[in-house]
Write a structure and sequence with these properties.
alpha+beta; Immunoglobulin-like; Purple Acid Phosphatase, chain A, domain 2; 3 domains; seven-stranded mixed beta sheet; 30 strands
């Protein structure tokens, strides 16, 4: 049976000052006045049936010796029924953060906890252990992408005030690495939300200061104070578009070894996040009683091959040319013809095309081919991309997003859940898994201005006829790896739901392969980072329609609203409910109800169905 909570959740939240109408500024003053040395609040995370991680930080500039810290866990908010207590230390070695793995707790119970240090008492945090056995329901909140200088964290405030939430699942981009004035909103920076340090973060001290800035936010503190978190990083906890051996936003020539930056970022993450994850092997799973297995994946760092890029990874279209007679080169248009020629008489050359012809006509004069420079050529002469060659790179079977070790680990996790009779297998991971293609009308998204964005949109429009995916940084950029995961799901899972973040927009999509449906994906919008409405000079509704038209698997898409999504699981259904805020650009905002979807389990992944709830 589901445990009944000792502490009334709604009463608890009211006592914490976390009603929906609570003013963020007032909440911050309350926290700082109550406990000046606990300026970053308290947090809990990675709950199991008998234990949970508790976290805080002692805010001191420096100390000659470690600072003693005591902690208490109670079943009542008066702390007259302690169930666990102990001592820890805050030291410079871990940036004065304190992380305790409290064991010996009862399953399916809600607890309160607090810390004491230097004669001061921290705010009271609220957490829970996971239930075992027969579980009536569980509600997971999914969120991601909180960019401090791009908007206020009203979404965290709403998460804190939502008494129905059991666990908050943070899918990454908890912080952003950029310098002041980079990937930020000037109107928000003018209100005091400025990156600290003001430079791009590279060193351990840099990453620590950036976490300290984010964790000073009262709304983020409130979310941590109200619910336990289960978290996994995405790229911006390290650097934009990270992969296993580098990142788009890391330049070794000026910023040092990527491995040193990565290790500094992960050490700070381990210090500042309430996680028990192994930083070198962060994938893990937890059971929500007999209801579901939540599997947390790392699709960003340890197993990921480098992303392909439309701007840099297209080779020019080439033609095999018989150059036996230098004055009369002959194109070889078929493999059979080429096979008849001696290898020494064949060259494969990048060929410019005359775009005035329909279809474009290759120029076969060897002097033109060997001296052609597109920078100096008239606009109607250009190289064309080798789409076939690009697709071969994209579909290379060895390309991986998870890595061999994690792929081998995943199958038994799904199979074990199915054998236990859990109706749901939930994959929590960072990037979009559904197939999303370039909108057919993407060329019309360009403005009349001759700028880099418009130029890129017009270039991408040339790829529409070839059915290429929109985002090379998502699972679409690793189709062979995605198919291996789908094969595992089809073999081992029962009812698969994938949770994703990263895109800043909302998506509900069916996951399919050539054999048919595999499961469903529910992707959360961002906390504050901009969606398509912040990038494209057209109405978000146009983008939504274009993406859905090009991508049959996409059933819902919201390109403009910030928010989060909750998933309420029972044995009979999974209810996905979107929660939005009216703005993140000012301190005043309104909560907005988003759409609701009902996923009905079947006997196998291809039998799970989804329907909107009116």
């Amino acid at each position: 049976m589901t445990s009944r909570f000792t502490i009334g959740r709604r009463a608890m939240l009211q006592a914490m000052g976390l009603g929906a109408a609570a003013a963020a500024a007032g909440a911050q003053e309350e926290v700082l006045e109550a406990a000046p040395i606990f300026q970053h609040g308290v947090a809990s995370g990675d709950p199991l049936s008998d234990r949970v991680i508790l976290w805080t930080r002692v805010s001191v500039d420096a100390a000659d010796a470690p600072i003693p810290v005591t902690w208490e866990v109670s079943e009542t908010d008066t702390f007259d029924a302690l169930v666990a207590e102990g001592k820890g230390t805050a030291s410079a070695a871990r940036d004065y953060t304190v992380k305790i793995d409290v064991s010996g707790l009862k399953p399916g119970k809600r607890y309160v906890y607090r810390f004491k240090a230097l004669d001061q008492v921290s705010p009271v945090g609220h957490t829970m252990t996971l239930p075992v056995g027969d579980v009536e329901s569980m509600t997971i909140a999914s969120c991601s992408c909180s960019n401090y200088p791009y908007g206020f964290f009203h979404v965290y405030r709403q998460i804190a005030a939502n008494a129905d939430i059991d666990i908050v699942l943070h899918l990454g981009d908890y912080i952003y690495e950029y310098a002041k004035g980079t990937y930020s909103d000037p109107s928000v920076e003018a209100k005091g939300r400025i990156a600290d340090p003001e430079t791009e973060i590279l060193t351990l001290q840099d990453y620590r200061k950036r976490y300290a800035l984010y964790r000073s936010d009262p709304d983020l503190q409130a979310a941590h104070q109200a619910h336990p978190f289960v978290a996994i990083w995405d790229d911006h906890e390290i650097s934009n578009n990270t992969w296993s051996a580098g990142a788009e936003n890391h330049q070794p020539g000026t910023e040092g070894l990527f491995e040193e930056r990565r290790d500094a970022a992960l050490k700070a993450y381990d210090e500042w996040m309430p996680t028990r994850a192994d930083m070198r092997r962060p994938w893990r799973s937890i059971d929500l009683g007999d209801l579901a297995r939540l599997v947390v994946l790392d699709t960003r760092l340890w197993g990921r091959d480098k992303q392909l890029n439309y701007a840099t990874d297209f080779d020019p279209r080439t033609i095999a040319v018989d150059v036996s007679d230098q004055d009369n080169p002959k194109p070889l248009r078929t493999p059979d013809a080429q096979a008849t020629m001696a290898a020494t008489k064949v060259e494969r050359l990048a060929v410019p095309f005359d775009m005035r012809e329909k279809p474009p006509k290759p120029l076969l004069d060897l002097d033109v081919i060997r001296t052609f420079d597109p920078k100096d050529a008239p606009p109607y002469l250009t190289y064309l991309p080798d789409v076939g060659g690009f697709k071969e790179k994209l579909e290379e079977p060895a390309r991986t997003l998870l890595g061999e070790e994690q792929e081998a680990w995943l199958g038994p996790q799904l199979e074990g859940s199915k054998k236990r009779g859990q109706p749901w297998q939930i994959l929590a991971q960072q990037v979009l898994m559904a197939k999303v293609f370039i909108p057919k009308d993407v060329g019309t998204y360009a403005s009349d201005e001759d700028n880099a964005l418009s130029e890129s949109l017009r270039a991408v429009a040339q790829l529409v006829p070839f059915g290429l995916p929109l985002n090379m940084d998502a699972w679409d950029g690793y189709p062979a790896a995605r198919q291996r995961l789908f094969d595992q799901a089809r073999q081992f899972a029962k009812n698969l739901i994938v949770l994703a973040g990263d895109t800043h927009n909302s998506w509900v999509s069916q996951l399919t392969d050539k054999r048919g449906p595999v499961g469903w994906e529910v992707a959360t919008p961002s906390v504050s980072s901009p969606g398509f409405e912040g990038y494209l000079p057209i109405a978000p509704e146009t983008v939504e329609a274009g993406l859905k038209d090009a991508s049959p698997d996409v059933k819902y898409m919201n390109a403009k609203d910030r928010g989060y999504v909750t998933i309420r699981l029972t044995r009979e259904e999974a209810i996905a409910r979107y929660h939005y805020v009216s703005t993140v650009k000012s301190r005043d905002f309104d909560a907005k109800d988003g759409p609701v979807f009902r996923v009905v389990p079947g006997g196998a992944p291809d039998e799970t169905t989804l329907e909107p709830v009116v």
